[in-house]
């Protein structure tokens, strides 16, 4: 459903081409992945629109004292032909405030995140071809304490659907899904559940894992701790899945999402050994995981 644009929003879009050629110079810091800027460089009576160009698959936007608007152009270093297969996800900072975030395509606007909306850990995803991000400051009596910010990620649509499955997100994986997860996940470990911390506000559970064998990890989520030399780490999942501490080893797989390990398939290790051996005997295992 399309939301009605805020007052002054359409003139901002219609005047964009003119603004690109002039206007106040913005003071900001930027690299290929992240942008940080301030609305204090704008003259108060102007509705400036700033263009932001980022070329990474993940990063962040931090807009202090927001005034006017930003157009965020995500241009990953991939072939334009692959753009239609990409999903964009954004995760607002916990205290983000001072602006509405829209999807914009050929002048049409769809409200994505309303200013003041408080949904801890909520992630908003859309197809890359659905439009770009248009961030417009909302009228404020005092902007001195307002910072609008969010993280972003670009990923293939297959990975995004794995992370945001609407139907049966807590169901056990089939044998085929487990074997494929071993080959494609960002982390694969054999370990046990040491403890589970439930975060009711964020509707998530944090699984504290003791690692017995590390097969693969994309980033250093699982690390050696203390003098004992044990590997430990944390994996997040939905609170509704009802994860509890228990005995025995599991094969934990999953993906990194906004710097956090998110749980994918996690069969008991003895069940994984069975399905892996059966597939290997038939020559059907999609990849080798190595010795136990």
UniProtKB/TrEMBL annotation:
GO molecular function terms noted in the UniProt entry: hormone activity
Primary localization: secreted
Record keyword Cytoplasm present: no
Position of the signal peptide: 1-26
Domain of life assignment: Eukaryota
Compartments where found: Secreted
GO CC list: extracellular space
InterPro entries: Meteorin-like, TIMP-like_OB-fold
Biological processes per GO annotation: energy homeostasis; fat cell differentiation; negative regulation of inflammatory response; positive regulation of brown fat cell differentiation; response to cold; response to muscle activity
Keywords: Disulfide bond, Hormone, Secreted, Signal
Family designation: Belongs to the meteorin family.
Protein name, UniProt field: Meteorin-like protein
Organism encoding this protein: Gallus gallus
Annotated gene: METRNL
């Amino acid at each position: 459903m399309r939301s009605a644009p805020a007052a002054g929003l359409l003139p901002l879009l219609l005047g964009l081409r003119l603004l690109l050629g002039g206007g106040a110079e913005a003071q900001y810091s930027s690299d290929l992945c992240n942008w940080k800027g301030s609305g204090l460089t704008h003259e108060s009576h102007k509705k400036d629109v700033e263009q932001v160009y980022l070329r990474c698959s993940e990063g962040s936007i931090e807009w202090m004292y927001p005034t006017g608007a930003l157009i965020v152009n995500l241009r990953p270093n991939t072939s334009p032909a692959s753009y239609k297969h990409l999903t964009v996800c954004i995760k607002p900072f916990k205290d983000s405030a001072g602006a509405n975030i829209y999807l914009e395509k050929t002048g049409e606007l769809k409200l994505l995140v309303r200013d003041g909306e408080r949904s801890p850990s909520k992630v908003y995803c859309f197809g890359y071809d659905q439009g770009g991000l248009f961030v417009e400051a909302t009228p404020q009596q005092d902007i001195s304490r307002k910072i609008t910010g969010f993280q972003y990620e670009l990923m293939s649509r297959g990975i995004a659907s794995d992370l945001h499955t609407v139907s049966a997100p807590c169901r056990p994986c089939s044998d085929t899904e487990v074997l494929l997860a071993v080959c494609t996940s960002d982390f694969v470990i054999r370990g046990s559940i040491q403890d589970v911390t439930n975060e009711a506000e964020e509707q998530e559970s944090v699984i504290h894992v003791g690692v017995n064998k590390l097969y693969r990890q994309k980033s250093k989520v699982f690390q050696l701790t203390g003098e004992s030399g044990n590997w430990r780490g944390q994996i997040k999942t939905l609170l509704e899945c009802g994860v509890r501490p228990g005995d025995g080893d599991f094969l934990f797989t999953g993906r990194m999402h906004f710097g956090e390990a998110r749980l994918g398939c996690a069969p008991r290790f003895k069940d994984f050994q069975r399905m892996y051996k059966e597939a290997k005997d038939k020559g059907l295992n999609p990849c080798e995981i190595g010795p136990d």
